[in-house]
Amino acid sequence: MKKRIAIFIQGTVQGVGFRPFIYRLARSYNLKGWVLNSPEGVMIEAEGNKSDLKNFLISIGQEKPDISFISSLEFKYLDLKDYDDFVIKKSENHSEPTVRIIPDIATCSKCRDEIFNPDDRRYLYPFTNCTNCGPRFSIIASLPYDRQNTTMKKFSMCSECRSEYENTENRRFHAQPNACPVCGPHIELWDSSKKILNKNIDAAAECVEFIKKGNIIALKGLGGFQLIADARNDDAIKLLRKRKYREEKPFAVMYPDIQMVKNDCDVSPLEERLLNSAQCPIVLLFAKDNDVSKFVAPGNPYLGVMIPYTPLHHILMKELGFPVIATSGNLSEEPICIDENEAISKLGNIADYFLVHNRPIERHVDDSIVRVINDRELILRRARGYAPLSVDIESNTKMLAVGGHLKNTIAVTGNKKFFLSQHIGNLGTPESYNTFQNTIEDFKRLYKTQPDCIICDMHPDYLSAKYSVKQSIEVKKIQHHIAHTFSCMFDNETEPPLLGVSWDGTGYGEDGKIWGGEFFIFDENGISRKAHFKYFKLPGGEICIKKINRIAFSLLNETGSDDSEKSDNLLSLNSKEKNLLREMLKRKINSPETSSVGRLFDGVAAVLGLRNQVNFEGQAAMELEFLTVNSDNDDYYDYKIENSKSTLIIDWRPIIDKIITEKINKLSLNSISVKFHNTLARIILDISKICGLKKVLLSGGCFQNKYLLEKTIKLLEQNNFKPYWHQRIPPNDGGISAGQAFSLIKS
Ligand code: ZN
Ligand code: ZN
Ligand code: FE
Q: How far apart are CA 517 and CA 734, in angstroms?
């Protein structure tokens, strides 16, 4: 099947024979389209069959001209344009070069070679960088991007560094963070009382010994602190979990090199490209039999894996020679620490030692997370290497979009540009709310834009919404799930008429109920809520997000199974608890109604006995998804679609009834889970058929689920619908700000 792909490349790609290279490569794969130099970098559009496009993408990185360097490559699939040739387009003549903030770039191979060359003056120097690599977004204080405007301003270059910096022929010509052991930043190893144990390379060497002994290290990295421990050491991981109050949420793992990753995990060519890219994200990989402790990602068949991306990581990992966990250095729910004094006070009870340095971090940038689904990259968290995202838009509106409550990001527009911030996190603590406000000020200042209006979520209690009404400019509100659909539209550059499927855990609905299983029609008449899952109650409200057996009880109650011995069999609730819940449901005491598919996943997981409580958002749904691994089939459960006025109500009760029966009859959990997923995909197909719109957009946190997303895409395509899903903008609430902004751009 023919596809169109748009590729955005930044780095040393101009004036190095890059366009002719792309031209030849595209022709060799029989692709049509164009390549163009723009102020933002090289842009490519190519059409051809899917496998040729995939090989083309992978070959760009592998066969590019020697002197070129790709600091970021992103792509997305778009609707066909039916080009009839491949051409080099004339460069656009921009009178003014646009201000551009470049994401942080992983250490290039030339710098890496220098670090490990005993004869080089930067031998084992942890701050080695060049024009092609090193810190950017995390050190830029203001524009233009000059050393004086970065956190490197306090280091003055030695004569050798200066002559590199001034020599047009040198790889470090105008490399703003240029540094060496003589003039640049240095590392120190501290204990938790701030006592300096060692400096420079001895600090790294001692740190390595501590990690080998099972200690936990707080490492000042590129965009913030990371907590590091031997990933093979059960005791070290258990200790970290205990100290961090993080019971089961998976930790990311850093491997010394790609070969070791391949020994431990399945790695497709696309995943390998991502791991090796200069963006160097955490990639979710299917784990093979390996030595990584089962406490790293309990019950999870996947591992979040990355390879070293700074010289300091390279030096440590080469010495260690085994994988370590590398997780955000923060207290739970707070933003990642970026300052060593802050780290000592916050992480003093978590880390045994602190490997710090004196190059200040201007703003927090977490590690990014990506996953390959249906042979495409799906970004789950946009941060280091990817942030900030800048997109040209037609509109000249100046606005601020403040995002949602979980996985918050913000977006600003101005000067015909759209900018999306890095991942900020859950706005549940004063610290994260501070970071949220700082990021807004940061983006307004960096991009010299003053918004005329703010767009926020409808939820009256969201801190982001409360922030918005306090500002003295116009505030507009948009419903959460409608914003999700807008973000998917924006990501895919597609237009109504379309059906937006928006499924997640929580979002405030226009009727004051908790939405999360929504279908919207976007057409010439505007936006209408065409269908949703039948409401069910959450006894106790918010607490159900954690205590999912309460959701299960509510589902059983709705199907009339809560009284019988069925519920005794299924749920670990004593009769007193059950009576209490039953009363709450009956009298509607603190039992808000929801149509959330995320909560339905939770309830089904509890009915199946996977767990009664979750320790982190999405845990139960993930476990249901894991049951589908290697057990595909096409069976599904019956369900009903009812017509209420002009809205379709999806009655899930027959599904729950059947699941209860199958569970009691001891059918395999794998097949029950597969059938449940298939049923959800069927529901999307059926509603799509009723609506009769060709385009179906899949957005919301539920579509991080690989099985659900791939099954839905397949069913829709087999039935001649055109499914769209997320690519560069996360399907989860990290995409809400983009959706909010885009809804205003469109209106
Ligand atoms: Zn370099
Ligand atoms: Zn120097
Ligand atoms: Fe959401």
A: 18
